[in-house]
């Protein structure tokens, strides 16, 4: 029933906390001089987005959301995000972790076959218990 939009313009949004921004992730814009992308998905070079730092090319980094409440027919969770992959070896994975479990279940992933362009994806999440993405 309520929808929150996150654009990283002023902070990391309500879904992400500073403590959840693990090493390797930085908040930047296209003017940062760090290489592509040089703008956000709308072509705005001053708009902010999250990016892996250049030092993380051969490693991985994780983002974790706050805890979401269980879903049902009245309370659906749908997450839409824009992503950019510039390396052939890069893989972006979205996982779901229920609070009662130690394991993370991969619910979506993409590898670097579509390089150097913004793409969008929407994921609908169903969980009968509290979870993180």
From TrEMBL:
MAM domain location: 4-133
Signal sequence residues: none
Organism: Eudyptes chrysocome (Western rockhopper penguin)
Cellular component GO terms held in the UniProt record: membrane
Matching InterPro entries: ConA-like_dom_sf (IPR013320), MAM_dom (IPR000998), MAM_domain-containing (IPR051560)
Name by which UniProt lists this protein: MAM and LDL-receptor class A domain-containing protein 1
Superkingdom in the source lineage: Eukaryota
